[in-house]
């Protein structure tokens, strides 16, 4: 299974930039797809309402995995699982 990692960000967010830099190598190692979505310009306005006050947020296979900080080893473990992440 190819996991999808979505990083929810906002322009000008320093933590978002830091977490993106953290995710790039972890996702590459696991063969996961990394997508970055700016909640202020997303097609789905609900993203800003739900996540906009606690960015950056990492979704794994569409489910919230982490917020503000990412534990690389925990993410690696979850990306190594053959089934979709369910939280």
Structure at a glance:
With 87 residues, the protein is of the alpha+beta class. The protein has one domain: 3-Layer(aba) Sandwich (Glutaredoxin), CATH 3.40.30.10.
Give the radius of gyration.
Answer: 12 Å
Provide the low-confidence segments as ranges: none
Q: Major β-sheet, in short? A: 4 strands, mixed
CATH superfamily: Glutaredoxin
Structural class: alpha+beta
What is the name of the CATH architecture?
Answer: 3-Layer(aba) Sandwich
Mean pLDDT: 96
CATH topology: Glutaredoxin
Beta-strand content estimate: 15-25%
Query: What spatial form do the alpha-carbon principal axes imply?
Result: globular
Helix content: 25-40%
Keywords:
87 residues, alpha+beta, Glutaredoxin
How is the topology of this model organized?
Layout: E1 4-9, H1 14-30, E2 33-38, H2 46-51, E3 57-60, E4 63-67, H3 72-80
Parallel strand pairs: 1-2
Antiparallel strand pairs: 1-3, 3-4
Structure description:
The radius of gyration is 12 Å and the shape is globular. The chain has a 4-stranded mixed sheet with strand order 2-1-3-4, covered by helices on one side. The mean pLDDT is 96. Helix content is 37%, strand content 24%. The chain has one domain (4-80): 3-Layer(aba) Sandwich (Glutaredoxin). Helix 1 runs parallel beside helix 3. It has helices at residues 14-30, 46-51, 72-80; strands at 4-9, 33-38, 57-60, 63-67. The chain contains 3 helices and 4 strands, in the order E-H-E-H-E-E-H. By secondary structure, it is of the alpha+beta class.
